[in-house]
Amino acid sequence: MISLINHDWVTALKPPFKNRPNNCVTLDGKPHFIARDCAVVAQVFLYDKQSQTWYVLLGKRGSNVPDFQGFWGFPCGYLDWDETLYEAVLREVWEETGLVLADLPTSKQVLKSHNLPSENDRSPLPWKISDNPSNSSKQNISHHFSFYVHWHAAELPALTIEYAETNEAEAAQWVSLEEAKQFDMAFNHTPCLIELLEVEAHHFDHIIKV
User: Fold this and answer.
1) Under a CB-based contact definition with an 8 Å cutoff, are residues 112 and 9 in contact?
2) 3-class secondary structure for 146-181?
3) Is residue 130 in a domain?
4) I need a labelling partner for 50 at 20 to 30 A (CA). Which of 29, 41, 67, 112 fits?
5) Residue 176 within any structural domain of the chain
């Protein structure tokens, strides 16, 4: 039996994939495929019991970064070889602000926390993944992690930029949440902050209740 196929109909059913070939380069004898980069973003929030104020951890970008020099933003960066997303976000926070999130759970100044590293907890998942290629010319796939701390001490945790690459960071600072919402931050960090305050509102309420 001869079957007649309408080729126009078959073409119309073809999935609308771009189906582009993956370009490959060789470095040190190993093949590396050119693809979209994987990035991590850290949103670290601290509730200061004494002032009853929420703060967010921000960094000011230095002169040796390719874009948004002088703008404030969340600690962020790219995933390195041989590390998980969670390991990457902890490292980026330390490199750009000097804050070691793994030290906070055992600190006497921390009354309660959420998503901080712990031997008994599994690594948390990102609360948001940004993968829209039209949002940035870099087309990074950004994984956003949020951390929450209830802090009770005379001073906020110390910060430093000494571990950042030369001129990568200009400053690191705890900024009141109300002030940060008014910032014009690097990348899409300002709308991400506004979205997080709505999506993750329950974490803020939970941390305050000690």
Assistant:
1) no
2) EEEEEECCCCCCCCCCCCCCCCCEEEEEEEEHHHHC
3) yes
4) 41
5) yes
